Amino acid sequence: MSFRTAARALITSVVAALALTTAHATAAPAPAAPADDPAITARVLTYDAGGSAEFAGAVAAGVAVWNESVVNVRLTPAAAGQSANIRIIADNGWPRALRTSLGNGIVYMGREAVGYDTTRIAAHELGHILGLPDIKPGPCSSLMSGSTAGLSCTNPYPNAAERAAVENYFAGSTAAGDRIPGRQLFTD
């Protein structure tokens, strides 16, 4: 068995175990990559929401949205002492994301976005870390339309095109970061 095949099998096993854990913890478990298909291996990204303060519930819901929506990438909490791919911090500015590379960066859950749905904000900012740009102006059906969809928009789910783009960015390789620009700051 080659190293790559063994690594894929190990990752697939970990993803399946996480899916089983999720199934016991929630009513709607996230879909896992099929264990019998070595071509489908989810890239696992860890996040640290320790600094998300009052936005912790919205962050957890935003993570769940992405885990329900795509299969090529999984967001999981970083273990104690583990360096996370994504840090999530509450601050007094406007919500924004600083992507340092595909799947890595900082999400700022800014308190200035008074009245906007915080789960939508979390999912939107995580979308930037997963490679998506803003789509402005845009309808409520587009997660990446952000604030241009208006205060009444509470849709936290990416549309088909947004899901397909993330699936493509994380398809088959942890080196998929070459497909999109690296370090970028996104403000909504």
Fold and architecture overview:
It contains 4 helices and 6 strands; from the N terminus they run αβαββββααβ. It has helices spanning 3-25, 56-69, 118-129, 160-169; strands spanning 43-51, 73-77, 86-91, 96-101, 104-110, 184-187. Helix 2 links the parallel strand 1 (43-51) and strand 2 (73-77). Helix 2 packs across helix 3 (118-129). The longest helix has 23 residues, at 3-25.
Quick summary:
By secondary structure, the protein is an alpha/beta fold. The chain contains four helices and six strands. The chain is 31% helix and 20% strand.
Percentage of β-strand residues: 15-25%
List the secondary-structure elements in sequence, H or E: HEHEEEEHHE
User: From the alpha-carbon coordinates, what is the Rg to the nearest angstrom?
Assistant: 16 Å
Termini Cα gap: 47 Å
- Main sheet: which strands, in order across? 2-1-3-5-4-6
Question: Major beta sheet, specifics?
Answer: 6 strands, mixed
- Average pLDDT reading: 81
* Sequence stretches where pLDDT stays below 50 over 5 or more residues: 1-36, 174-178
Number of β-strand runs: 6
* Helical coverage, percent range: 25-40%
User: What is the 3D shape?
Assistant: globular
Number of helices: 4
Please identify the structural class as seen in this structure.
alpha/beta
Question: Any key phrases for this structure?
Answer:
188 residues, 4 helices, 6 strands, six-stranded mixed β-sheet, alpha/beta, 31% helix
